[in-house]
Amino acid sequence: MLSDFERTFGRPRLGTARLLPGAPRLGAVLAAVLLAGASALSAREVDPGFNLFSVAQDVEIGRQSAVEAERQLPLLGDRSVDRYANDVLGRLAAEAPGARYPYQIKVVNSTDVNAFTLPGGYMYVNRGLVEAARSESELAGVLAHEAAHVALRHGTHQASKALVARAGIGILGALLDGDRGNSGKLLDAIGGVGLNAVFLKFSRDAEHEADLVGARIMRDAGYDPAAMADFFELLRREQRRDPGRVEQFFSSHPPPRTGRAGSAPKLAAWDGSSGRGRSADSIRCKPS
Predict the structure, then answer these.
(1) Is the pLDDT of residue 120 over 60?
(2) Which domain holds residue 141?
(3) Is residue 106 within 8 Å of residue 74, measured between CB atoms?
(4) In what order do the strands lie in the sheet with 115-118?
């Protein structure tokens, strides 16, 4: 019987081989490490770091950027697919730390394997990525990673650093003089809204944090965090086979300094249950 995932997205297009029962899973080892790190992070509130923007500005910047982005992106426009992806994201967002952002996602009609998020919870995932995922849990792993970037406010954190680097410390004086409510002037200084690389390409440290917090989000939402590591490993193998197809993903998602295996020795609290991950393959993403 087909799962909801299989009926929605069809059979996976990459890495269709399944692990044999009892075979060791690299992802399970990495997940144990990630959850140990995540449990250390969970001991304190999420620290968004240096940021010149308010949470409300994150949402407004994301909204404006989404409008601009969708003028350029070939959206799939399949309501059943978008509804399913938003259902998965909704379960993850309910467990995300930090501010309550209006998390939402749309599927892009591109065979390249990629996903990205804008400040404030506006998320996009390519058809190529959802077709490559072998289960709902693997898709959830990518979405949880992206949701972690939102919760940690990585996009506007990077924009803040870029502002100070380009405009100098004087920009802080302008903010203190009352310009904080006017994000437009600040954004103009770093290239404006839309598909601005400032919001889309994160550091290796930010990727490490998103792995850890994303794994915790998965666990709390009932998914097995090992699926995140399994899927990233699948993409790493695909990079060797067809680097062009995953070039965008690895360009905007550089592996942590120690590699994703190094992220893992920190997540020990996973209880080993299989979570909510429903087997693999659902309603095919129909190219429009």
Answers:
(1) yes
(2) 25-272
(3) no
(4) 104-108, 122-126, 115-118
Closest by Cα among 141, 133, 142, 140 to 280: 133
Residue 110 lies in a domain: yes
Residue 208 banded pLDDT, cuts 50, 70, 90 = confident
Q: Is residue 252 part of a domain?
A: yes
Mean pLDDT of the chain: 75
Assess whether pLDDT exceeds 80 at residue 98.
Answer: yes
Total domains present in the chain: 1
Query: Cα separations (Å) of 183 from 9, 79, 283?
Result: 38, 33, 41
Residues facing 5 on adjacent strands: 282
Q: How far, in Å, CA of 215 to CA of 221, rounded?
A: 10
Location of structure tokens 């410390």: 169
On whether residue 18 sits in a domain, the answer given is no
Burial class, 43, CB count within 10 angstroms (exposed 0-12 / middle 13-18 / buried 19+): exposed
pLDDT at site 124: 96
User: If you average pLDDT over residues 20-26, what whole number do you get?
Assistant: 37
3-state SS class at 13 = coil
Is position 227 within any domain?
yes
Question: Given pLDDT bands bounded at 50, 70 and 90, which one contains residue 11?
Answer: low
Q: Measured between alpha carbons, how far is 77 from 286 in angstroms, rounded to an integer? A: 9
Helical H segments across 75-182, by residue range: 79-93, 127-132, 136-151, 154-167, 170-176
- Continuous segment of H or E residues that includes residue 58: helix 55-69
Residue 25 and residue 237: Cα distance in Å, rounded? 15
Q: Are strands 104-108 and 115-118 parallel, antiparallel or unpaired?
A: unpaired
Residue range 1-10: average pLDDT? 63
Portion of the chain with pLDDT greater than 90, in percent: 39
> Which residue did the predictor score with more confidence, 209 or 284?
209
